[in-house]
Amino acid sequence: DDGLKKALTGAELVVIPAGVPRKPGMTRDDLFNTNAGIVRDLAKACAETCPEAKLLIISNPVNSTVPIATEVFKKANVYDAKRIFGVTSLDLVRASRFVGEKTGSVGEVPVVGGHAGVTIIPLFSQVPDLQLSDAERDALTHRVQFGGDEVVKAKDGAGSATLSMAYAGARFADSLLRAAAGEDVLEWAFVRTDLFKKEGLEFFSTYVKLDKNGVKEVLPLPSNISAYEQELVQKAIPELKKSEAKGVSFVAGN
Question: Against a cut of 0.90, is the pTM above it?
């Protein structure tokens, strides 16, 4: 059956949301055993059929599935870091919504790091005129980091975030299409970067300038993030490294 090959032939942008959703009590990492193989196989098909397509990976755990796709493309000798993205837009959408509920106006809240628990780092310091007490900041940060758990519990075994994830994925795909059409677009995504090379970390979600080829430039974190946010970054790094290593090991052993 060459249906997958036919579907991918000539593709310029491939979105991968395939996989199993979480159930109550599960972390995104618990999905690894099933979703890792799915992402590996789809990445292999893309590497063979449409190696120059931009790959948007939604399947969790994104902190591991992006390294998996990267290793598959490397094995096929078609790897280009500019074209592989982990879609973390859902975290930005949630952060913006939660802040909007508090302030009455919805603005953009940058979210960096990764896409699981403590690796999700909302940068409330970058929202103009946002005043938060320490308690409010802590509660909002936790809600952005674990907002997905609220949805999983509310659905009571019937799945995880779907509509909001579809919106977030469509938003990011639209950003890439606009960039391909020549527009200057600034987004946030989980990509290959040297920002934390000294710490031994290869992937991080941060500000990304997009162009027709994918990533035009990976931007550093703002120099004026708060001490609290700097601390969150340091806490996230070891978790991100573990997830990255797990993805790389999976491809090496399979």
Answer: yes
